Request: fold
Amino acid sequence: MKKYILLSAITIALLACTSQQSLTNQKIDTQDKSPAEIVLAFGSCNRTDLPNNLWDDILQDQPDVWIWGGDVIYADTENMNKMQQMYQDQLADPGYANMIKNIPVIGTWDDHDYGLNDGGEEYPKRVEAQQLFHDFIGIDKSDAYRQIPGVYTAYDIAHPKGKVSIYVLDTRYFRSKLTPDPAPNRRYQPSTNKSDTMLGAAQWKWLEQELKNSNATFHVFISSIQFLSGEHGFERWATMPHEMERLEQLLTKYQIPNAMILSGDRHISEFSQKNLPDLGYPLIDFTSSGLTHVYQSFSGEPNRYRTGEVVNKLSYGLVRIHMETKKVQFLMRGNQQQTYQQLEIQYQ
Reply:
């Protein structure tokens, strides 16, 4: 059983807004970290048959929460027994088991833990796979959240200087089939069908209601696939440009302060940055991938929004939110506490 002790001025409230119930109902020991900041750690692309040497580094960074960005396991199967065993193998990993004794865990899935490579609504075992994912994350069997299709939800982290809201998005359960690209070395091209959806009607309705009513200081969106980088030929939000525009329009319509996106999937890490009209601050998409394997032969790809360089080393993402100054540090972190790249943004 996880036990967290509150020993500083920070009060952490992880509340599932979808079900109006607490998903974790836990307090976090913050005795060795500055009460001035909230720290988020996240990562993706984790094979259970490969070693992960980053769990101890993540624990040393003392984040307030660990966020899975997808591909927790590589199941790619309709065999639920096989999928369940992979989740159990991950839970039995000594490094991971030690970390989650001290850090609460939330997150979303991507295609390989969803069960179908590049899969969406066509995956026939999505209902069963959802329950296994909830089991792994630690959602109580009686929680009403389990009855809602998909794994999207929201969390609040309260602080004396404001609040951080985390929106865990599901880009799998409702997503329309992607449009194949006939060009060599490219899988998918942008869809021209405005009825194609990334999040589905119910999730979009929920998200707009959340943003409309939000009083958070910072808004963090968890997307298993990249949002801003749209020129490569793999999965990305840009396969449905109208869905990208929809999220951007929600940010400007409700004048959402200090929004950022954390993404995974690509087996590389990079920072992307876009200035939206009337938003007043840059929208950052911090991609962190992967935890156990990376695109070692990466030789480059266009990304008009890239800031800095692509990192193709095993790494996780760290986001340090300084609540009083509203300065945020985005760090690509590796084994033995290495920092491969860093970006700082002064928010409002």
